[in-house]
Amino acid sequence: MAYISCIYNTYITPLQQILKIMTASHDKSLEAFIENTSTAKADNISVEVSTNPSPSGDSWFDDPKNMESVMRGIEDAEQERTKAYSMDEIKNLLEV
Predict the structure, then answer these.
(1) Among 10, 16, 76, 83, which residue's Cβ finds the most Cβ atoms within 10 Å?
(2) 45 lies in a domain?
(3) What value does the mean pLDDT of the chain take?
(4) What is the count of structural domains for the chain?
(5) For 5-20, how does the pLDDT look when each residue is reduced to its tens digit (9 = 90+)?
(6) Is 17 among the domain residues?
(7) Position 32 in a domain
């Protein structure tokens, strides 16, 4: 890490020097500067929540009928109204 000599014979990183310059130019303490900067950034953050559970945004999940089916399946699983099939049972059901 690079250090810059300062007038008090202490060494500060370039980031520390930049922060000192920025806080001095805003006539604020470092703490107040960071708080105001982070508050301003937080106020500009836009958060959108998608009801589509697909990481790739698969449009199949945008169809309300499909999502109703998924939700019914989740409810059935939670209420233990499901059955687990073995591979042999699946093959028999599919006649393969």
Answers:
(1) 16
(2) no
(3) 82
(4) 2
(5) 555 556 778 877 887 7
(6) yes
(7) yes
Q: Does the model's pTM come out above 0.70? A: no
Q: Residue 66: which domain range? A: 59-94
Q: Which two tokens stand for residue 28?
A: 């604020």
Angle at 6 between CA 31 and CA 38, to 5 degrees: 20
What string of DSSP letters covers the chain?
Answer: ---EE-TTS-EE-HHHHHHHHHHHHTTS-HHHHHHHHHHHHHHT------S---TT--GGGGSHHHHHHHHHHHHHHHTT------HHHHHHHHT-
d(CA 23, CA 32): 9
Q: Tokens for 80?
A: 């233990």
* pLDDT, position 6: 53
Residue listed under structure tokens 């014979």: 9
Span 11-48, pLDDT tens digits: 778 877 887 777 777 777 777 877 877 777 777 788 77
